[in-house]
Design brief:
The protein has about 200 residues and is an all-alpha fold. The protein is about 65% helix and about 0% strand.
Length: about 200
């Protein structure tokens, strides 16, 4: 099996999808046969979106847990890879991220993390327009992060899969084991929470 992926410098890049699309079919078939080189190629190809999703789900302050869950995700991927149907309803990236999201939801249900405080280091830059803009962007990002962190795990998963990873409603439905109507209602609630959080920041 492929070596365990390292989170070093990967989660921070925040890629939401493999840079070159899906893994090519030949490499996938080789990985399904257990070829070590192909398995390593699969990990390299998909580790960024896996780490990005897990980091957003769990928070940047839980790097060790993110690394553990990423490893568990790929272990499960290789255990089940022979059963993956390339011509089935799910893309390989969707299938892998579904495994990762379920791991994250299970982890959040066990122990909900606190939101990491956002440091605002603008010393020496007060009054500078560029510094003010940077501060404002950090404030907005922090407000969005807090709003996402305040969502219950299933709502957070639906929102992140849709907005950060481009899942279709049907793909989120399959990933979370819910119907598309529930997907839409969870997304509406998540977006409303974000709007409320940003409105409160603006009013403040």
């Amino acid at each position: 099996m492929a070596n365990s992926p390292s989170a070093s410098n990967e989660a921070s890049k925040g890629d939401s999808a493999p840079a070159s699309g899906e893994l090519d079919e030949l490499t996938l078939r080789r990985a399904q046969r257990g070829d070590d080189g192909a398995c390593r190629a699969l990990v390299v190809h998909y580790q960024r979106p896996v780490f990005a999703l897990l980091s957003r789900m769990l928070g940047p302050d839980r790097r060790p847990v993110v690394e553990d869950l990423a490893q568990e995700t790929f272990i499960q991927v290789f255990r089940s890879l022979k059963r993956f149907a390339p011509l089935g309803p799910a893309r390989l990236s969707t299938w892998i991220l579904t495994i990762a999201s379920r791991r994250a939801v299970d982890e959040l249900r066990r122990a909900r993390p606190a939101t990491e405080p956002i440091e605002d280091d603008t010393s020496g830059l007060a009054g500078d327009d560029r510094a003010d803009q940077m501060t404002r962007r950090r404030e907005i990002a922090a407000a969005i992060q807090r709003a996402i962190a305040d969502l219950s795990p299933p709502y957070r998963a639906a929102f992140l899969l849709r907005e950060y990873h481009g899942f279709e409603y049907a793909e989120i439905s399959r990933a979370l084991g819910i119907d598309t109507g529930t997907v839409k209602s969870r997304l509406a609630r998540a977006r409303a929470a974000l709007r409320e959080s940003l409105a409160e920041m603006h009013d403040g």
